[in-house]
Amino acid sequence: MKAPVSWIRELVDLPETVTTEVLTDRLTALGLKLEGIEAAGADIEGPLVIGRVLTQDKEPQKNGKVINWCRVDIGAAGELVEGYDPAEGQGIVCGAHNFGPGDKVVVILPGGVLPGDFRISARKTYGHVSAGMICSASELGLPEDGSDGIIVVPEDGPEPGTDAREFLGFGDEVIEFEINPDRAYALSLRGVAREAALGFGVPFTDPADRAVPEVDGKAWEVVVDDPTGCPVFAARLVSGFDPSAPTPEHIKRRVEQAGMRSISLAVDVTNYVMLELGQPTHGYDADKVAGSLGVRRARAGERITTLDDAVRDLSPGNDGDLVITDDSGPIGLAGVMGGATTEISGTTTRILVEAAHWDPVSMFRTGKRHKLSSEAGKRNERGVDPLLPAGAADRVVELLVEHGGATAEPGFTLVGTAPPQPTVTIATDLPAQLSGIEISAMTAVEHLRAIGATVAEHEDGVVGVTPPSWRPDITDPHDLVEEVVRIVGYDQVPSLLPRRATGRGLTRLQRLRRRVGRSLAGAGLVEVVSFPFVGEATFDRLGLTADDPRRATVPLANPLSSEEPAYTTTLLPGLLEAAGRNIGRGAPGVALFETATVAFPSDNGPAPIYGVHTRPTEAEVDKLIEALPVQPQHLAVVLAGERQRSGWWGAGADAAWSDALAVVRRLATELGVELRVTATHRMPWHPGRCALLSIDEVEIGCAGELHPKVCKSFGLPARAAAIELDLDALLAATPTVAAGPQFSTMPLAKEDVALVVDASVTAADVEAALRDGAGPLLESVRLFDAYTGAQVGEGKKSLAFALRFRAPDRTLTEGEAGAARDAAVAEAASRTGAVQR
Amino acid sequence: MSGPNTDYDPVEVAAVSPAEVEAARDAALAAIAAAADLEQLKAVRSDHAGDRSPLALANREIGALPPQARKEAGQRVGQARGAVNQALAARSAELEVEHEARILVEESVDVTLPTDRDPVGARHPLTTGAELIADIFVAMGWEVAEGPVIEAEWLNFDALNLGPDHPARTMQDTFWTDPADDHVVLRTHTSPVQARTMLTRTPPIYVVCPGRVFRTDEYDATHSPMFHQVEGLAIDEGISMAHLKGTLDHFASQMFGEGITTRFRPSYFPFTEPSAEVDLVCFVCRGVDSDACRTCRGEGWIEWGGCGIVNPRVLQACGVDSSRYSGFAFGMGIDRTLMFRHGLEDLRTLFEGDVRFTTAFGSEL
Ligand SMILES: [Zn+2]
Fold first, then answer.
1. Which of A187, A433, B172, B245 has its CA 20 to 30 A from that of A608?
2. Which CATH architecture has domain A424-486?
3. What is the ipTM of this complex?
């Protein structure tokens, strides 16, 4: 909402000491937040005066242009110009043609400065000395009035030589406020001025407070079919309107200051009244209206062409669009935008004026449905004072009569009455209780009266409060509390800490998740946060098969991009893209991780919508939660390119499949989780280098080298590796209380064995067999070498294990350790065909 | 090997003469003193104390002397050998120390050589930022509550007093899952976590809810379809705006430094009534000579978030007895907070995953 300071001051008697800054500070404190202050002409310096064109000689130029060599009478301002001859006038070259001799114009004289630091001086051009400039609106930084030429001052405007600033409205600051949805009344000068009066405790002149003619229903016949949608409808008629009458300068300027375009007197007047009072009104060309006006919901199949020339299919039914009709059908989208068929034109002489109160919800829905945002709609959907229509219609008539030469026809149609404001009961100590400020009952009541509410007499500390008609937002005691507290001042709220918080700290899972992040960062990985949106193309890049369960996503009804219309089931796409971006930007290697939610459809039907007056039952709450997608937290890692740098210490190393396994195994070990690793193939991993990770036979994810095609697709170096796993499952497997370990301090017996097995036998199987066969004396088994080559033969490999034995109570003899080793090897031989080298 | 008289050679008997013994001893002592390192000393030991050294030979000859001369000669040679051995041991110890010291000197390295073999990791500032905030509240006795990002419409809107016709519920602002009449959204704020908390717990409730949220904003330097919020909720007997102010003042000073406080301006949120915007004293200029301050753009204050007294309608929908309990709630953007706290120019740097960005924050903020 933009409000000129001069207009505010017209409606409220603010003391001189209240500067614009003081005013905006106070209004911001009351809840009308200052967005900015504009002052037209603030960057114009020097002599800017009214002039009268004495002569205008058109001089064609070689380039085809025609320039005007003008002599301009600048009256007393001639004193500012050296050698000015009043009989000759000021010589100025002008390229515009929308004016002629005798017209009054705005002139900036040498020494002046226009916006953009454009300095004016006398200069030679087109064979003349041009000493000044005849100004257009845009050159002065004013909104274009559509004439696309220089400003022609009306004949009743100021005389030549007068400073033009006052005429142009310069120096009048315009304040832009951010208006919250609950303060629709402040979308008008009436509302802003009322707040200013409240803020400074000064009198306020309500522009809506005016005598209106007696209601006789004779202005026009109006039938309201839907009194819920349209509780009040006022109509007036004027005739003899002069369609060529210009909009008076002060109305035009104020409409423009508010950020709207000046169009014609009839339109400007309705906008002016809307700005002044907050009540949208509409003018019809009465000669184009066929029969009586009706107000009803649209019917199936109806359409309308609105003033913006859009043809709109209307939505029928009780929740449908409210329309204004005549005998021809709908002629206006009620409260939002008028129709083209009854539009006021350059020949209109009879104007039917409408001012109505509309149901805000219906207005909101219509605006939303038709994607129509108008100044009228904005006010109507937030709630306008229902007592305004009669006065607003009368005010429009008054201005049309005053400036358009029209005659007010007798008769005043007013259908319906304003719905009564509900009375809200409030304990007078509630404002004090909820604000923490000491506010007496007397103060509370005084402030409620100050906002225009009617407060019934006290009774046991409880009062009945009827909010003023312009405050439809006030329905609850807490709404009244906000009113009282904002007048007392939010800055009066003391600062106290609550004393009763007795929390249990972070949950175990919250602590574990932090641990996971720190551990991975400690292992040299950098965390990233990426968007969770994916599409089929994303999965194609990962090489997922058509039936891969990760393609079953939760789709979005309104994605930002049609390429990525779903919530992701995997963190890898975002992570691989981030890795590719780093590599693309020149990083020799990158190690990234991300933990985030992924989503899988639950297919448990729609989520219910409940009422809000009581809490839903436990079963109902469960139903809400069951309807949601399954949303586990995943952890994903990508390691690409240089993992260890080379340097004076020797060669570095690029990331490989084993680095991914190392990361996940180390994490599992730190968390105390026993992770089982088996071979699998699953995209986007290399079919021969993908490890399935499981806990107690339940899969939690995969790790290994990425498929070469995937590396290529994401711009990653060959052999890049990745992990993705269900972090929730991993953390669920962590022991809550670790059992204290028991270990022996007796001497250690070392036995190393080298076993030859078929190449297809896994190290894990051999190790498991050794472990099982070795018996209770075994302390640890560790594979320390793996070898394939001529010495072990084709299709074979050699695995060397270090077996470590220890007894709890004695030094083992060589025989005991040897026997245990032999038993281990025997078990490995029988289970895996291992042969000791 | 050498027994008495076995190698008796009368010719060399002269070697036991006092002059010879003394000369041999002095020669040995001089050589020992002159040995510059352990290697030379080893040669000296062999020459002057070895089997073929003059003193060893002299010793051997003692047995050939007549019995009356033996004792005296034995004493003389024994003393000389003793002196030589002692000198050898002393010099050896001396040289050993010198040797060790020299080795340490020789082994010195250039400790300024780079050692960046392994890459350095880092957690994301959005994570550590959320943890910092959580820790401030946990230290006050609050708990951290969480909820899903894909949420029921009723919990995201209705329960929070955002009725069916609230503007925020349009397709322009909210991501809906398909079909939209499944009534499931990507949560537009972390407030549904507050609703869930009220539905499942009994007051007193003191929780903060950090998390990611979604709006259908086009992605640019200051907007993102995904961003992060932290909201707080306190429900207890006798809760007032004063407690809200106290809590936010404490939060501000912990997050931005001692003496940084907040101010309230009236505002509107469906979830709260009365409602307020929270501004933060600019932590750079502290409101003094703000004109040149880039952080607050000359305002002296920074818009931080929204807050208010929980609307009793919300308490009612979530099963909290509003006649007994009142509450306050607040919310602010974590991304935005990080942007002004760390002077970030472009929101997108948070989501690009460039390691140069993330590592700049270290693992903690
Ligand atoms: Zn500042």
1. B172
2. 2-Layer Sandwich (3.30)
3. 0.86
